[in-house]
Structure formats: structure tokens, C-alpha cells
Amino acid sequence: MPMSFEYRGMLINLPDFDRERKEYFEHAAQKKLVVQKCKGCALLRWDPGPACPWCQSLEWTWQQVSGKGTIYSYEIVTHAIQPGFRDWVPYPVALVELDEQRGKPSPDEGVRLITNVVDENFNPEKEENVGIGKRVEVVFLPVAEGVFLPQFKLSKEQPTERVWQFQNV
Ligand SMILES: [Zn+2]
Questions:
Q1: What's the pLDDT tens digit per position in 25-45?
Q2: If exposure means fewest CB atoms within 10 Å of the residue's CB, which of 16, 51, 116, 147 is most exposed?
Q3: How far apart (Å, rounded) are the C-alpha atoms in residues 8 and 70?
Q4: Distance 162 CA to ligand 1 centre (A)
Q5: Domain boundaries, position 62
Q6: Distance from first CA to last CA of the chain, Å, rounded?
């Protein structure tokens, strides 16, 4: 069955042929964050897709991850292209590096996800609270009946590296 749901007034369709993304959301519905693990080279990857970016193998399996990570980079959106996010501006979008597989397959790589950074009420986190190096953890935003979107919120863990922000506020 194709998945179809509305998110912030936008219609999201996940057709049957997008098996990887559908299964990703099926795991999210059980409050599990999963990434693909290649059966060829054993590396983890995100975003969901058919082939391994490292070795091109089409063989893979799902692996649940801790949902803990660090903000690797971020931006503040001040002009929302999608109408559904206009009332959110300014809001942060982050590239989160998961704790799993940091520094592999090379010292500059890891498993990184694009995500909104939200507070405990699933509203956008304030700009002054977001910074590179801050610790985050996954939360599952209820979007529609049986549909949860993995998002990240700031964790209570202290950063293990120097925090960098766009501006000192
Ligand atoms: Zn591979």
C-alpha cells in the first residue's frame, strides 16, 4: 500500500517503489530510528536508498541506532520556500552526525542526517540555543495517524567539543 499523509498542509506521498523510505517510516512509527547497513562493506548510511554510496552493493539490512548525535552543521531558515513552514521562520535545520560510525569510512565522514531541531513541544528550537558541536537526540513527531517523523532535539548531555554558533547572542 502506498503511504500518503499530510504534513503542515503539504501532501506527502510514498509510493510502493520507494521501499526504503516507506520502511524507514514504518520503523519510525514504532519509535525506532533506523539506518541502512550495507551487506557488502558493513557501513551504515542515510538517507534511505537502494545502493551503498561506498561500494555500490544493493544488499543491505536495517539497523536500529541510538538516536544520539552531535550537530555537525546547521543553518537558520529565514525565508521558507515551503508554505507549511512560513509560520516557523526563523528556524534551524541541522546536519546531525550520529554517534554510530563517527570518523568512518574516513576521518571526515560519518552517518549524517538532515533534520529540524525542535523543542519538547515540537516547535522550532531557538536560534541562540543551536550550535555546531551541541548534543542532540531523536524525537518522533506525530504527523498523522500511524505516521511519525524522526526529528532531533537538544540533549541534556554536555558537548564533548567546542560549540560554534553563527553569532554570539
Ligand atoms: Zn557498501
A1: 999 999 999 999 999 999 999
A2: 16
A3: 27
A4: 32
A5: 3-154
A6: 48
pLDDT of residue 168: 55
Total domains in the chain come to 1
Residue 149 belongs to some domain of the structure: yes
CA of 39 relative to ligand 1 center, distance in Å: 6
Report the C-alpha dihedral over residues 124, 19, 22, 86, rounded to 10 degrees.
Answer: 40
Q: How many whole angstroms from 52 Cα to the centroid of ligand 1?
A: 5
Q: What is the three-class DSSP state of 61?
A: strand
Kindly report the number of other CB atoms within 10 A of residue 17's CB atom: 10
If you measure from the C-alpha of residue 137 to the centroid of ligand 1, how many angstroms do you get, rounded to a whole number? 26
Decide if 160 is inside a domain: no
Predicted TM-score of the model (pTM): 0.93
Contact (CB, 8 A) for 140 and 153 = no
pLDDT of the residue at 2 = 80
Has residue 48 been placed in a domain?
A: yes
Using the mean position of ligand 1's atoms as its centre, give its distance from the Cα of residue 151 in Å: 26
Please tell me the distance from the alpha carbon of residue 141 to that of residue 147, in angstroms, as a whole number.
8
67, 128, 52: which is closest to 97 by C-alpha? 67
